[in-house]
Amino acid sequence: MIFRKIALDFDRIVIFVPIIQQKSMKKSSLLSLFLILATLGMAQVEYVYDFNSLTEGSQNLNGQDGWMTHYQTAASSQDFDVSYVCGSDMAPDESLAIWYPYGGSGVGRTATRKASSNFNFNFQNGGIMDLEIDMNRTWWGSFFGVGFDSDGDGHILPGMTDPDGGVYLFIKSQGDSGHAKVCLPDGSNIPFDYEEGGWTRYKMSFDFTAYDGAGAVTVFVKPGCEGEWIQMAGCTNVCMNLTPGSGDKNDYQVWDGVFFHSQGGTGGFDNLLVRQQPDGNAQLIEMADIPNQLIFNDPITLVATASSGLPVSFEMKEGPATINGNILTLTGETGVVRFKATQAGNANWLPAPDVVKSFEVVDPYAYEPEVKIRRPYDGTKVYLDEIHPVMIVVSAYIEHPEVIKFTDVHASVNGEHIALQTDYPDDPDNGYYYGFWTPSGFGDFDMSVSVTQSGDKTTTFTNRFEVTNDIESHLDVVTMNGDLVCTPTVHSAKGEYVFPSHVGAFNEILAHFEYNCVDGNCDTYDRVGGVKVRNYRGEWMELFRYITPFRKECQDDVDVSDYTSLLQGLVELEFYMELWNGSGSNPNLFFSFTKGTPDYLYADVDEIWFGTFAFGDYANQQPVPVVDYSFSEQAQTAKLKITTTGHNWSSGTNNSYNTGNAAEFYHAHHNININGATTYTQDLWETCQPNPAGCNDQLGTWIWPRAGWCPGSIGMVWDFDLTEYLTAGRAELFYQFDPTYLDYCHPNHPDCVDGVTCTECAAPDNPVLRVAGKVVSFSNDEDLLVSVHEAHAVPAFTAEVYPNPAKGQFTISTDYDKGAVSVMMLNMYGQMVMFFTVEGQRTIDVSRLPAGIYTLQMLGGSVVTQKVVVE
Known about the structure:
The chain is mostly beta strands. It folds into 6 domains: 2-277, Sandwich (Jelly Rolls), CATH 2.60.120.200; 285-362, Immunoglobulins (Immunoglobulin-like, Sandwich); 366-468, Immunoglobulins (Immunoglobulin-like, Sandwich); 471-598, Jelly Rolls (Sandwich), CATH 2.60.120; 604-794, Sandwich (Jelly Rolls), CATH 2.60.120; 799-870, Immunoglobulin-like, CATH 2.60.40.3080. The chain contains 1 helix and 66 strands. Strands 3, 4, 6, 9, 11, 16, 17, 18, 19 and 21 form a 10-stranded antiparallel β-sheet that branches. Strands 5-10-20-12-13-14-15 form a 7-stranded antiparallel β-sheet, with no helix packed on it. The chain has a 6-stranded mixed β-sheet with strand order 35-34-37-38-32-41, with no helix packed on it. A hairpin with a 2-residue loop joins β7 and β8 (89-90). It starts with a strand and ends with a strand.
């Protein structure tokens, strides 16, 4: 038996703890370790579980040492692996760990362990408790937490078994960010900013005495599972809205198990710890993050507060800066500054966890901007039927855009200065600048673009192009040619392609899309995908939507002439496809330009709706927000362009069928309401035999008509004329889903009864409509493209909050007539403290909340925001 010495920072007591050392492993086995640390009259107990006593193997966690695992939604979901490695991955301490390398639709697993003699944690006494784990996040999501096994089946399944639940930390790497949040038992979420990949040690620190027993949670992280804890500013001392004594998942006194979950990618878990400290007064330090700085910035005044009210001290750890009291001064060198805020406590307060902050000091002169002159593109032709103003488009990016700013971007053509503007000056990820230039005639031109950045450093870029009236009768552009690939694990790919620049030269643009499968191995079902384009403002929008055929390759064509002002120069395109099986898709996409005089020289496209909306949801029957659209003064005609496709019809794993097999197989009639009147009706139905794209003889149900699409074809497009509203300058646009339809197999419907109206009301795959709505304006005046159009979501309802200020409770009354309103209550830091729904009127108990000003964000088709003062 080997002893490890553990020293306490806050006392002179040293305790020697016996540890069993297993020579075949690099870390100590702590299966039944608990530490009793007596200090200052306060007892601290730790329970650690490191998985090292488990039997190594594939898909074998379930049933080992009290662990119970359960599939997500697909019953075929594999069990967790117990192993030292998973492919090339290994836990940070190179010991046995839990892995989940499996993925697919609904494929995931949750592991639960109840308290036991060798892991005997207990939440009944409340106080201060920590929950820690080493976790390797996955694409679709991993989480860990603590909660209540309501039905006593050995599983805690938040989101699956409704009475089950607790508090858990959820993080995933889907997309480009971490999507990190803490999920509370009342259904609300607390997001925080953390995007590190790979292994991280996470800690949730609970104070069950805070907010008069409603409890508070604070999140800490250790990237790479080493170093000092980093406190997450977005999730510090946030109210958990617990209800001690309620006997359900909202009552920490009945929490009886820890759990973790993984889906998609390679999830990993190791070194689970529960720390109990039931006595004493805990305190936390709150301090905002310090943004990155330039080497010549002024001294920074550090501000931090302890919840105890005791003073906070600051200490430099490393980097090009000094601290004197609460003043941090940069030394003028580059590097990473790390410092910590401390509060040592006193006879009444425990020491606060140190808060470590870091930021980078940047030299702006050391970085060059990445600039592309997109339009006109170098070495290309600008086609004009006669001399017209031509758009210039530039994209500019630089490392450390949070501190290195572009102070001026302009172009010069043959010595003529052209000012360039951006619609997103505060969004460096956008980076698009544009303006207009009128050629002096036909011929060759030299252009330069100058970019000035912080520190007055200017960089210049050049290109050369030709302006010509020698217009080809037919011009073909090859873009995607098998170079972009989507797979079951990668659903998006982007590329850049050269188009001709032109004004008044072409009157028709057709897109030809060829759906190809990698190695001929196509997805077996109909999947949603399409192509997006990035416009001259740097905004992405859907060009067209494509739904794949059943297990074969096909092709289709669509008229994209309305996008004439977008498809010019060096254009960014995105291919997206939500494949689930097969080897992937690598399509071809060609554009054909036909010579001719268009009705108008310029066309502007504003995407006002894009998303997936529930259809027939009793709680929110009209989810698409009403938009108050202001037209450009230069617009001479305009249209509303809509693509809508209906999806889902049943949950095949449990035979729960949506009412009317909606939305995919339900023949709905939606309305376009303008200024409060039903102006147009959209008949959302397409005949699929014969297939509109000629993609016949498929497998599956391809012959059945569908809601706005057919397998193997581009989704239907509707155009609705808005010209008569230009005189008024604005129009209120409301896309009303078929008001006659309700899904009686929906968990939000009060009359849905399991086994009666529906096999299972909580089944997934309720009907949804994917909507893309755009306002397209046309003009012969180039200022159409420069003017800023406004599209505001208008309140679809009103709400009254009373009394305000409120003592103990307040009442919300709304006139929303389309179901329930979802309400998020935010504190002054923007953190969610409560989440609830209101249908008509509801009284809310806020007696547990501290006094202050709160924001109510109410969602019911659109967002209505109000302030409420709690005394």
